[in-house]
Amino acid sequence: MPTSDHADWIRRDAAVVWHGFTQMSCYADNTPLIIDRAEGRELVDTDGNRYLDAISSLWVTTLGHRVPELDDAVRAQLDRVAHTTLLGNGNTATIRFTEALVPRLPTPGCHVLYASDGAAAVEQALRIAFQWWTNQGEHSRQHYLALGDAYHGDTIGALSLGAGGFGTDVYDPLRFPVLRTPGYHDPHWDDAAVAALDEHGDELAALVIEPLVQGAAGMAVTTPQQVRRVVDHAQALGILVIADEVAVGFGRTGTLFASEQCGIEPDLVAMGKGITGGYLPLSATAASPKVYDGFLGEDLSETTLYHGHSYSGNALACAVALRHLELLDDWDVLTNVVARADELGTLLAEQVTDAPGVGDVRRRGLMTGVELAPPADGLRWGRRVCAAAVRRGVLLRPLGDVVVLMPPLTVTAEEINRIVETLAAALDEVCGD
Prior knowledge:
It contains 14 helices and 17 strands. The chain has 433 residues and is of the alpha/beta class. It has two domains: 33-63 and 332-431, Aspartate Aminotransferase, domain 1 (Alpha-Beta Complex), CATH 3.90.1150; 70-330, 3-Layer(aba) Sandwich (Aspartate Aminotransferase, domain 2), CATH 3.40.640.10. A hairpin with a 4-residue loop joins strand 2 and strand 3 (50-53). Helix 3 runs antiparallel to helix 11 (315-330), helix 7 (189-200) packs parallel to helix 8 (224-236) and helix 13 (381-391) packs across helix 14.
C-alpha cells in the first residue's frame, strides 16, 4: 500500500467510511488515529507513532496483536477451507473448537449456536428463551427482567433489554417493553430484582444479567454473592437465566467466565468480544441441556429453532478461537490477569483515586472505570482526558465521563505502571485546575 501522511488518510477515511458511535460531521476535527499495523500490545499509526492499546481495541484483544501462534492458526486453516455453512452441515474447525469450549463453560453439557457479534449472541438467547417456553406449551412468558443501566448490544432486541442512552431513545417505538429493576450502581439492586421475580415470575421468559460488571454502564460492579442470590432465586422459580458474558467473558475479570466467580450455572450464556483473541468476528450462545432438549422433535417440526446466520461457526474464526483457548492455558494467562489486576488496583489507589476531578474508581480484574466529576456540564472531561493520554502514547476511550481501562490479558507490570502514570498525567492536565 502506498504511504501517505496522516491528514490525507483521515481525509480518505471520512470520504467513504461511516464510523459507529461517531458524529461524522466532526470526525476529522477530533484527531482520530489511523492505525497501519500493530506489534504485541502496541498499535502503530500511519506516521509511525506507537500507542499502548489500553482498551484492547474495544475489549476484544486478549493476548495482544500479531501473536505468532494465532497467526499460524489462521494460515493453517486457510490451507483447508475458510468457510462452509453450518446450516444443516458441519465443519471440523467448528467441531474442534466447540469440543474444547463446552467443558470450560460455567454450565455443564451445553450446545453452542454461533453468530458474529455479541449483540447477535444476545438476540439468539432472547429468541431461544422465548421459543423454549412456547415449545413447553406456555404462551404467557413474553417478558424479560433486565437491570437498570444495562447494555446488551445494538440490535433491536438487545436495545430493548438495554436501559437506553448512547442516543438510542430515537428507537423507543421499536423497542419491546421489559421489566426493569435497578442496576449495579444501586447497592441494593438484588433486593429489587428478587422482589420483581416474585411478583412477575409467571410472565417472565428469562432474567438477563451481566455477571459482576455492567461494562457500558461505566464499569458498574457488584458482588458475586448478590449475583448468585438473584440467579438462584430466578431458577428456583423456574425462570430461565441468560448471562451476558460478552464483555466479562474470556478472562477479563480474572476467571475465564465471570459466572464462575458467582457460582452460577446460567441456562443460556452469550459470548463474544475476546472469544477469538480479537482476531476475527465470532460470538456464541450456549444453551444448557434443559434448554437444548426443549427444541428436539420431528424433522421440520414447529419445535425447531428456525434461526441462523450465513457466517455462523466460521471455520477461520473457530480455528483461531481454538488456538486462543489453548494459549490461555499454555501461557497461564489468568494467573497474569490476577497479578496485574492487583498491581493495577494498588497503583490506581496511589495515583488516581484521590486525584483532582476523580469521583470514583471501579474495578473487577482488569476491567476498570475511572469516573470523573466535572464541576459543570459540557466540559467533556472524559474525552479530553483520553485525548491527553493518547498524546502520551496510551490509547484510552471514555464512556461519557468514565475513562475505561481494559488492557490485554498479557499486559506486563511495566505496562500497567505506564498506563496509570499516563492517566494520572492526563488527569492533571485536564482536571488539575
